[in-house]
Amino acid sequence: MTVIAVGEIELDYERTGAGPPLLLIMGMSGTSLHWDEPFLEQLRSDFDVIAYDHRGVGASTRLDGPLTIRGMAADAAALLDALEVDSAHVMGVSMGGMIAQELALAHPERLRTLTLGCTYCGGEGSSVTSQAVLQRLTEAMVSGDRERALRVGFDVNVSAGYAADDAAYQRFLEIANRRAVAVPVVLAQMQACLAHDTNARLPELAMPTLVVHGTEDQLLPVDNGRLIASRVPGSRLEIFDGAGHLFFWEQPQRSAELVREHAAVPA
Questions:
Q1: Using CA atoms, how far apart are residues 30 and 119, in angstroms rounded to an integer?
Q2: Is-contact 225 213, C-beta < 8 A?
Q3: Tens-place pLDDT, residues 110-149
Q4: Bridge partners for 48 per DSSP
Q5: Half-sphere exposure of 20 (CA within 13 A, CB side)
Q6: All domains in the chain, ordered by first residue
Q7: In what side-by-side order are the strands of the sheet with 2-6?
Q8: pLDDT for residue 265
Q9: Average pLDDT value over all residues in the chain
Q10: CA 221 to CA 217: how far, in whole Å?
């Protein structure tokens, strides 16, 4: 990957493929590697794919102080500026979907289309992670057993059926070993997510918007996707039956097909 100056910080990014620009915004505790190669490979023949690591992650500038979703959206806009990209298709997942919402609201002219995956808008009607899942994650994280923490992290991010796929879990482990995200950064991202609320402002969005969510999402229940789609005028909702939070891991071909179809919608 390559480090580029973005305002007063630097962001680590990778740009591959050919076609119109597609900015990918990753979620909490994730890195650009978590887009997973099968999904990225499906996109590269149709898009100039831009994936990056948030501040505090990978080789991007170390975190100094608290994070906000709006601040991270400003980072995304500044990255487009630094890359001399006037407008792009934008896809954000989980926390990245929250960032994409704020980016679209602050800079609607920069987005050709918007894709929001497995994400959350806050406000009335939103659903948060269940106490049972939070307890399971917390116990694994404080156990001091990194293998256990990674195993539980994978299991709650995917459906029960996909969790049994050992090859997928090995890819997940390899990514974690290549680029770990520090606990203080994850906690700062979590605080930013807890403060996120675009619910009342989503009707302002006018660009073509696709909302994707899996029915087996344990981290952000599928009702969040339905709520966002109901708040964004003219949006398209796609529900992946049986898929977990990382729907683009479980169904990379279908996920890429949806992004490709959506990008053909006139902006």
A1: 14
A2: yes
A3: 999 999 999 999 999 999 999 999 899 889 888 888 899 9
A4: 17, 21
A5: 15
A6: 2-129+182-263 (3.40.50.1820)
A7: 2-6, 9-17, 48-53, 21-25, 88-93, 111-117, 209-214, 236-240
A8: 52
A9: 95
A10: 5
